[in-house]
Amino acid sequence: MDTTQSDGSGGRPAEGPSRSGSPSQSGGGSDGAPDPRVPWVVGITGASGSLYAAAVLRGLIDAGEPVDLIVSKAARLTLIDETGRSVRDAHWKDDVSAWIGRELAHADVEYWRADDFAAGPSSGSYRAKGFIAVPATAAACAGIALGLSKDLIQRAGEVNLKERRPVVVVPRETPASRSHLQHLLELHDAGAVVVPATPAFYAGSRDLDQVVDFLAGRILDAAGVEHGLYRRWKGDLGAARDDA
Ligand SMILES: Cc1cc2nc3c(=O)[nH]c(=O)nc-3n(C[C@H](O)[C@H](O)[C@H](O)COP(=O)(O)O)c2cc1C
Protein backbone atom coordinates (compact mmCIF):
# COMPACT_ATOMS: atom_id res chain seq x y z
CA MET A 1 0.00 0.00 0.00
CA ASP A 2 1.40 3.37 -0.93
CA THR A 3 0.30 5.41 2.04
CA THR A 4 1.90 8.58 0.77
CA GLN A 5 -0.46 8.82 -2.14
CA SER A 6 -4.08 9.83 -2.24
CA ASP A 7 -6.46 6.98 -2.51
CA GLY A 8 -7.71 6.77 -6.00
CA SER A 9 -10.55 9.14 -5.29
CA GLY A 10 -9.59 11.05 -8.40
CA GLY A 11 -8.57 14.21 -6.63
CA ARG A 12 -11.10 15.40 -4.11
CA PRO A 13 -11.29 13.60 -0.80
CA ALA A 14 -14.53 11.75 -0.11
CA GLU A 15 -14.73 13.57 3.21
CA GLY A 16 -13.45 17.08 3.77
CA PRO A 17 -13.98 20.46 2.23
CA SER A 18 -15.51 20.58 -1.18
CA ARG A 19 -15.66 23.77 -3.17
CA SER A 20 -19.35 24.07 -2.37
CA GLY A 21 -19.66 22.41 0.99
CA SER A 22 -16.94 23.79 3.22
CA PRO A 23 -18.09 26.06 6.06
CA SER A 24 -15.42 28.47 4.95
CA GLN A 25 -17.16 28.80 1.62
CA SER A 26 -20.65 29.15 3.02
CA GLY A 27 -20.18 32.14 5.37
CA GLY A 28 -18.43 35.22 4.01
CA GLY A 29 -19.83 35.30 0.54
CA SER A 30 -20.22 38.04 -2.01
CA ASP A 31 -22.70 39.82 0.26
CA GLY A 32 -19.75 40.86 2.40
CA ALA A 33 -21.25 39.31 5.54
CA PRO A 34 -18.64 38.26 8.07
CA ASP A 35 -17.57 34.62 7.86
CA PRO A 36 -18.21 33.14 11.29
CA ARG A 37 -15.55 30.49 10.85
CA VAL A 38 -11.95 31.64 11.35
CA PRO A 39 -9.76 28.57 11.73
CA TRP A 40 -6.19 27.91 12.74
CA VAL A 41 -4.39 26.40 9.78
CA VAL A 42 -2.29 23.52 11.12
CA GLY A 43 0.38 21.99 8.90
CA ILE A 44 1.91 18.67 9.94
CA THR A 45 5.20 18.01 8.14
CA GLY A 46 7.53 15.04 7.99
CA ALA A 47 9.76 15.73 10.98
CA SER A 48 9.95 13.42 13.93
CA GLY A 49 7.36 14.44 16.52
CA SER A 50 3.90 13.32 15.48
CA LEU A 51 3.11 13.21 19.21
CA TYR A 52 3.48 17.00 19.33
CA ALA A 53 1.08 17.44 16.41
CA ALA A 54 -1.52 15.22 18.09
CA ALA A 55 -1.24 17.13 21.37
CA VAL A 56 -1.59 20.51 19.63
CA LEU A 57 -4.63 19.30 17.69
CA ARG A 58 -6.23 18.06 20.92
CA GLY A 59 -5.45 21.38 22.59
CA LEU A 60 -7.04 23.42 19.78
CA ILE A 61 -10.12 21.16 19.64
CA ASP A 62 -10.53 21.19 23.43
CA ALA A 63 -10.31 25.00 23.35
CA GLY A 64 -13.15 25.04 20.81
CA GLU A 65 -10.92 26.44 18.06
CA PRO A 66 -11.76 25.66 14.43
CA VAL A 67 -8.91 23.89 12.67
CA ASP A 68 -7.98 23.52 9.00
CA LEU A 69 -5.62 20.56 8.84
CA ILE A 70 -2.99 19.83 6.19
CA VAL A 71 -0.72 16.75 6.35
CA SER A 72 2.34 16.68 4.10
CA LYS A 73 3.25 13.62 2.07
CA ALA A 74 6.38 13.08 4.19
CA ALA A 75 4.38 13.45 7.41
CA ARG A 76 2.50 10.29 6.48
CA LEU A 77 5.82 8.43 6.61
CA THR A 78 6.84 9.76 10.02
CA LEU A 79 3.34 9.08 11.32
CA ILE A 80 3.51 5.47 10.19
CA ASP A 81 7.02 5.13 11.59
CA GLU A 82 6.16 6.62 14.98
CA THR A 83 2.59 5.40 15.49
CA GLY A 84 1.84 2.72 12.89
CA ARG A 85 -1.10 4.83 11.73
CA SER A 86 -2.06 6.27 8.34
CA VAL A 87 -3.88 9.46 7.41
CA ARG A 88 -5.71 8.75 4.17
CA ASP A 89 -7.23 11.67 2.31
CA ALA A 90 -10.54 9.88 1.78
CA HIS A 91 -10.77 8.75 5.40
CA TRP A 92 -9.03 11.60 7.18
CA LYS A 93 -11.73 12.09 9.79
CA ASP A 94 -11.67 8.50 11.01
CA ASP A 95 -7.89 8.29 10.73
CA VAL A 96 -7.16 11.56 12.54
CA SER A 97 -9.77 10.78 15.20
CA ALA A 98 -8.19 7.39 15.91
CA TRP A 99 -4.71 8.90 15.92
CA ILE A 100 -5.28 11.83 18.27
CA GLY A 101 -7.91 10.11 20.42
CA ARG A 102 -10.67 12.66 19.94
CA GLU A 103 -14.12 12.22 18.47
CA LEU A 104 -14.28 14.67 15.55
CA ALA A 105 -17.99 14.43 14.82
CA HIS A 106 -18.70 17.62 16.73
CA ALA A 107 -15.29 19.26 16.42
CA ASP A 108 -14.81 22.01 13.84
CA VAL A 109 -11.99 20.39 11.89
CA GLU A 110 -11.64 20.65 8.11
CA TYR A 111 -9.05 18.96 5.96
CA TRP A 112 -7.19 20.08 2.86
CA ARG A 113 -4.95 17.96 0.71
CA ALA A 114 -1.33 19.05 0.79
CA ASP A 115 -1.19 19.12 -3.02
CA ASP A 116 -4.33 21.27 -3.36
CA PHE A 117 -3.00 24.69 -4.31
CA ALA A 118 -6.53 25.90 -4.96
CA ALA A 119 -7.47 25.18 -1.32
CA GLY A 120 -8.76 27.98 0.89
CA PRO A 121 -5.58 28.44 2.97
CA SER A 122 -3.55 29.13 -0.16
CA SER A 123 -5.06 32.61 -0.36
CA GLY A 124 -4.68 35.58 1.94
CA SER A 125 -8.34 36.41 1.44
CA TYR A 126 -9.30 33.12 3.10
CA ARG A 127 -10.07 33.84 6.73
CA ALA A 128 -7.64 32.31 9.21
CA LYS A 129 -6.58 33.07 12.77
CA GLY A 130 -3.04 32.06 11.97
CA PHE A 131 -0.81 29.15 11.08
CA ILE A 132 1.00 26.49 13.09
CA ALA A 133 3.56 24.09 11.58
CA VAL A 134 4.06 21.20 14.02
CA PRO A 135 6.41 19.47 13.74
CA ALA A 136 8.20 21.53 11.10
CA THR A 137 10.90 19.97 8.94
CA ALA A 138 14.01 21.87 7.97
CA ALA A 139 12.57 21.71 4.45
CA ALA A 140 9.27 23.30 5.49
CA CYS A 141 11.06 26.03 7.46
CA ALA A 142 13.20 26.79 4.42
CA GLY A 143 10.22 26.68 2.09
CA ILE A 144 8.15 29.07 4.19
CA ALA A 145 11.09 31.40 4.81
CA LEU A 146 11.96 31.53 1.11
CA GLY A 147 8.38 31.50 -0.17
CA LEU A 148 8.90 28.29 -2.16
CA SER A 149 5.27 27.10 -1.78
CA LYS A 150 6.28 23.53 -2.56
CA ASP A 151 2.96 22.37 -1.14
CA LEU A 152 -0.10 23.83 0.56
CA ILE A 153 1.61 23.86 3.97
CA GLN A 154 4.47 26.01 2.72
CA ARG A 155 2.04 28.24 0.83
CA ALA A 156 -0.27 28.65 3.84
CA GLY A 157 2.69 29.49 6.08
CA GLU A 158 3.90 32.15 3.69
CA VAL A 159 0.38 33.53 3.22
CA ASN A 160 -0.18 33.91 6.95
CA LEU A 161 3.18 35.64 7.31
CA LYS A 162 2.38 38.12 4.57
CA GLU A 163 -1.04 38.74 6.10
CA ARG A 164 0.71 39.48 9.41
CA ARG A 165 -1.23 36.82 11.28
CA PRO A 166 0.25 34.71 14.08
CA VAL A 167 2.58 32.07 12.67
CA VAL A 168 4.18 29.45 14.92
CA VAL A 169 6.78 27.02 13.62
CA VAL A 170 8.09 24.08 15.64
CA PRO A 171 11.35 22.98 14.00
CA ARG A 172 12.67 19.51 14.79
CA GLU A 173 16.12 18.83 13.47
CA THR A 174 19.38 18.36 15.26
CA PRO A 175 22.12 19.36 15.01
CA ALA A 176 21.20 22.53 13.14
CA SER A 177 23.16 23.54 10.06
CA ARG A 178 23.92 27.13 9.18
CA SER A 179 21.13 27.16 6.60
CA HIS A 180 18.63 25.78 9.15
CA LEU A 181 19.53 28.56 11.54
CA GLN A 182 19.40 31.17 8.79
CA HIS A 183 15.92 30.11 7.74
CA LEU A 184 14.69 30.17 11.33
CA LEU A 185 16.11 33.67 11.73
CA GLU A 186 14.34 34.73 8.55
CA LEU A 187 11.07 33.29 9.89
CA HIS A 188 11.59 35.13 13.18
CA ASP A 189 12.32 38.39 11.37
CA ALA A 190 9.20 37.92 9.23
CA GLY A 191 7.07 37.73 12.37
CA ALA A 192 6.87 34.01 13.10
CA VAL A 193 7.33 32.64 16.61
CA VAL A 194 9.91 29.85 16.46
CA VAL A 195 9.22 27.23 19.15
CA PRO A 196 11.92 24.56 18.78
CA ALA A 197 10.76 21.07 19.72
CA THR A 198 12.78 21.15 22.93
CA PRO A 199 10.74 20.21 25.99
CA ALA A 200 11.73 21.52 29.43
CA PHE A 201 11.63 19.60 32.68
CA TYR A 202 10.79 22.27 35.25
CA ALA A 203 7.04 21.63 35.12
CA GLY A 204 7.21 18.34 37.01
CA SER A 205 6.74 16.11 33.96
CA ARG A 206 6.90 12.48 34.97
CA ASP A 207 6.12 10.69 31.74
CA LEU A 208 6.29 11.12 27.98
CA ASP A 209 2.71 12.42 27.71
CA GLN A 210 3.51 15.21 30.15
CA VAL A 211 6.74 16.06 28.34
CA VAL A 212 4.81 16.25 25.06
CA ASP A 213 1.99 18.27 26.63
CA PHE A 214 4.51 20.76 27.98
CA LEU A 215 5.74 21.51 24.48
CA ALA A 216 2.21 21.52 23.05
CA GLY A 217 1.27 24.00 25.77
CA ARG A 218 4.17 26.29 24.87
CA ILE A 219 3.09 26.11 21.21
CA LEU A 220 -0.47 27.08 22.17
CA ASP A 221 0.96 29.85 24.39
CA ALA A 222 2.76 31.22 21.33
CA ALA A 223 -0.53 31.12 19.40
CA GLY A 224 -2.46 32.74 22.26
CA VAL A 225 -4.77 29.75 22.78
CA GLU A 226 -5.91 28.95 26.34
CA HIS A 227 -5.09 25.51 27.72
CA GLY A 228 -4.16 23.69 30.89
CA LEU A 229 -1.54 21.40 29.44
CA TYR A 230 1.29 22.03 31.86
CA ARG A 231 2.06 23.49 35.26
CA ARG A 232 3.29 27.04 34.83
CA TRP A 233 6.35 28.28 36.63
CA LYS A 234 5.33 30.14 39.79
CA GLY A 235 8.69 31.04 41.24
CA ASP A 236 9.11 28.16 43.70
CA LEU A 237 12.16 26.03 43.02
CA GLY A 238 11.28 22.34 43.16
CA ALA A 239 7.54 22.92 43.77
CA ALA A 240 6.46 21.15 40.58
CA ARG A 241 8.55 18.13 41.56
CA ASP A 242 7.02 18.10 45.02
CA ASP A 243 3.48 18.31 43.57
CA ALA A 244 3.97 15.62 40.95
C1 LIG B 1 11.24 8.69 9.87
C2 LIG B 1 11.66 10.03 9.36
C3 LIG B 1 12.00 11.03 10.27
C4 LIG B 1 12.38 12.28 9.81
N1 LIG B 1 12.69 13.25 10.74
C5 LIG B 1 12.99 14.49 10.34
C6 LIG B 1 13.21 15.52 11.31
O1 LIG B 1 13.13 15.31 12.51
N2 LIG B 1 13.46 16.77 10.83
C7 LIG B 1 13.52 17.06 9.50
O2 LIG B 1 13.75 18.22 9.17
N3 LIG B 1 13.32 16.09 8.55
C8 LIG B 1 13.04 14.84 8.93
N4 LIG B 1 12.81 13.85 8.00
C9 LIG B 1 12.98 14.17 6.58
C10 LIG B 1 11.77 14.86 5.99
O3 LIG B 1 10.61 14.05 6.10
C11 LIG B 1 12.03 15.22 4.51
O4 LIG B 1 13.01 16.25 4.45
C12 LIG B 1 10.81 15.64 3.75
O5 LIG B 1 11.19 15.98 2.41
C13 LIG B 1 10.12 16.83 4.36
O6 LIG B 1 8.96 17.14 3.62
P1 LIG B 1 7.81 18.07 4.19
O7 LIG B 1 8.47 19.29 4.77
O8 LIG B 1 6.97 18.37 3.01
O9 LIG B 1 7.06 17.28 5.20
C14 LIG B 1 12.43 12.57 8.42
C15 LIG B 1 12.06 11.57 7.52
C16 LIG B 1 11.68 10.33 7.99
C17 LIG B 1 11.26 9.28 6.98
Automatic annotation (TrEMBL):
Coiled coil: none annotated. The gene is ubiX. InterPro entries: Flavin_trans-like (IPR036551), Flavoprotein (IPR003382), UbiX-like (IPR004507). It catalyses: dimethylallyl phosphate + FMNH2 = prenylated FMNH2 + phosphate. Residues 16-25 have a biased composition (Low complexity). Keywords: Flavoprotein, FMN, Prenyltransferase, Transferase. It comes from Salininema proteolyticum. This is Flavin prenyltransferase UbiX. Residues 40-222 form the Flavoprotein domain.
